[in-house]
Structure formats: C-alpha cells, structure tokens
Amino acid sequence: MKIEFDRDTCIGMFQCVAEWDGFERDENAGKAILVDSEEEQPDTFVREIPADAELDAKFAARVCPVDAITVYDDDGEQIIP
C-alpha cells in the first residue's frame, strides 16, 4: 500500500498528524510533512505504508479537509479519497 501527499494543496490543519505518525508538523511552512517519503514530482511526496500502519494512514487521508492525501492499494488502484 502506498500513500501520496500533495504538499502544495496542504493547508496546515494537521489533522493527518493526529491520525498517523507518518506525518509531522512543519510549523515554519504551516504544512505537514510526510516522513520518510520521496519527492515524486514537485511538492508531491510518496512512501510505502507499513502493514501495521495501514488503518492509521487511511484515517489520515480521510480527515484531510482538502484531499491532499491519496492512498493506493498494492495494485496501484486509488482507494482514498
């Protein structure tokens, strides 16, 4: 399972941070950070979701008020949002 984070879209509500420790606050930028991610495109970051964190990562994506977080299954199909 993979998670994709569009940092440009992020508005810094940090609800994702409360749901999963895969996200951290960047108070200086007023946006979240996807920990241990790679920049796939400018301001788009991706990483694999550990099996034991899949539920928390899904919740993080669901609570994002601007849909800046997308979760994909192992076949590359978008499952959230």
Plain-language structure description:
This protein has 81 residues and is of the alpha+beta class. It has one domain (2-80): Alpha-Beta Plaits, CATH 3.30.70. It has helices spanning 15-19, 54-63; strands spanning 2-6, 23-26, 31-34, 38-41, 44-48, 69-72, 78-80. It has a 5-stranded antiparallel β-sheet, with helices on one face. Strands 2-3 form a two-stranded antiparallel sheet. The model has no long low-confidence stretch (mean pLDDT 96).
Q: What is the third-level CATH name, the topology?
A: Alpha-Beta Plaits
Return the domain count: 1
Gyration radius over CA: 11 Å
Instruction: Give the ordered list of helices and strands.
Output: EHEEEEHEE
Short account of what is shown:
The protein has about 80 residues and is an alpha+beta fold.
Short key terms for the protein model shown above:
about 80 residues, Alpha-Beta Plaits, five-stranded antiparallel β-sheet, 7 strands, about 35% strand, iron-sulfur, Ferredoxin
What's the structural blueprint in terms of helices and strands?
Layout (H helix, E strand, L loop, with lengths): L1 E5 L8 H5 L3 E4 L4 E4 L3 E4 L2 E5 L5 H10 L5 E4 L5 E3 L1
Antiparallel strand pairs: 1-5, 1-6, 2-3, 4-5, 6-7
